[in-house]
C-alpha cells in the first residue's frame, strides 16, 4: 500500500502544516498536524469542552459505527513549548491520503491548553515519532506509521514541506519526481523515540563550512530551527542590528536587514536554507522588527531541526532496521 496527502501551511508564515485525514465510518474529515517530534495521535472531539474549541473540526466517536472505546485508557502530553492536552482513547478506521489503518488508536481530547484552542485551523496531531514515546496508559499505542508499516510497499514516509506553499507527505514510497539527485542517508538513534540524528556541520552565507557533529531531532511539528548558541551568534553577527531579545524571547533584527543563507551538512551533502526562510515574521503586524527562523536551543536541552530547515529538502524517514533519515535536494 501507499498514501499521499497534502501538507498545507495554516498561516502566512508556515507556523504549522496540516493534512486532511478521515476518521470513522462514515468518514469524518479533520485537518491534523503530522508531527515527527511526538507519537500521540490526538484530536479535538465531542469530549472537548466547548469553551476550549474555537473553530476546530471535531471527531465524534458516537457517530462512527466502527469506533470502539479503549476502556480504562487515558493519555496526557506536554510539548517542549509548554503546550499540552489529555483525554481518553478510541480505536477507529483512520486514513491519510488513501492509506487506511483499521483500528488506529485515536486519542480524544478532554482538555487542550490555550495555544491549541487558539490555533483554529489545527484539529489535532498525528505523531510520527517512535511508538515508545506514546503516552497512552496503561498500555501504550502504536503510531499510524507503525500500524501501516506491514502493508507499505516500502517502510518509509517522506516529507516535502514547502515555503509559503502546499507540499506533501507520502507513505510507503519515495517519489523520484519530488527530489533532484541523490538522497543522502544518515543513521537515526531511535532512543528515546525522536528521529534523532547528526548534522555534519554548517556554514553561514558564503563562509567556510564548519565540520562538527551536531545531534538533534528532525521535527515536522516544530516551526523553527533551534541550534547551539555558538552557531546562532555566529549567524546573527552577520546581521546589522540583530540582537538576542529577552523581551521577544529570541533573536530579532530590522525586517529590512539582508540576511545570510544558512547551510547544514548531512554526511557529505550540503543543504542551503534561503535567507527568506530565516526572515521568519514581523513581531507584530505593523512592526519593522522581525523574528528569526534560526534560534538558540540552549534553553531546550535539545537541538531541533524544525520546518525552517526541513522545507529546504526532501526528507525520507526510513523505518527500516536500523532506522535512518535521508535528505535530498529538490
Ligand atoms: C522542545 C521545544 N522547546 N520549544 C521552545 C519548542 C518549540 C519545542 C518543540 C515543541 O514543543 N514542538 C511542538 C509543540 C507542540 C506540538 C508539537 N510539537
User: What's the rounded overall pLDDT mean?
Assistant: 98
Ligand kinds: ligand 47U
Q: CATH superfamily of the largest domain, called what?
A: Acid Proteases
**Count of separate structural domains:** 2
End-to-end Cα distance: 25 Å
Low-confidence stretches: none
CATH fold assignment of the largest domain: Cathepsin D, subunit A, domain 1
CATH architecture of the largest domain: Beta Barrel
Largest β sheet strand count, sense and barrel closure? 7 strands, mixed
- Give the topology string: H per helix, E per strand: EEEEEEEHEHEEEEEEHEEEEHEEEEHEE
Morphology call: globular
**How many DSSP helices?**
5
| Structural class category | mainly beta
Name of the level-1 CATH class of the largest domain: Mainly Beta
Indicate the proportion of strand residues. 35-45%
Biggest sheet, spatial arrangement of strands:
18-17-12-13-22-14-21
Helix content: under 10%
Number of strands: 24
The whole-angstrom Rg is 20 Å
Structure description:
The chain has helices at residues 114-118, 144-148, 229-236, 275-278, 307-310; strands at 3-9, 17-23, 28-35, 41-43, 68-78, 84-96, 99-112, 124-127, 156-162, 165-171, 184-187, 196-204, 210-218, 225-227, 243-245, 250-254, 262-266, 269-273, 279-282, 289-292, 294-296, 304-305, 314-318, 324-328. The protein is mainly beta and 330 residues long. The chain folds into 2 domains: 3-171, Beta Barrel (Cathepsin D, subunit A, domain 1), CATH 2.40.70.10; 179-328, Acid Proteases (Cathepsin D, subunit A, domain 1), CATH 2.40.70.10. The chain has a 7-stranded mixed sheet. Strands 2-3-8-4-7-6 form a 6-stranded mixed barrel. A 4-stranded antiparallel sheet has the order 15-16-20-19. Strand 6 and strand 7 (99-112) form a beta hairpin. Bound molecules: the ligand Cc1nn(C)c(C)c1CC(=O)Nc1ccccn1.
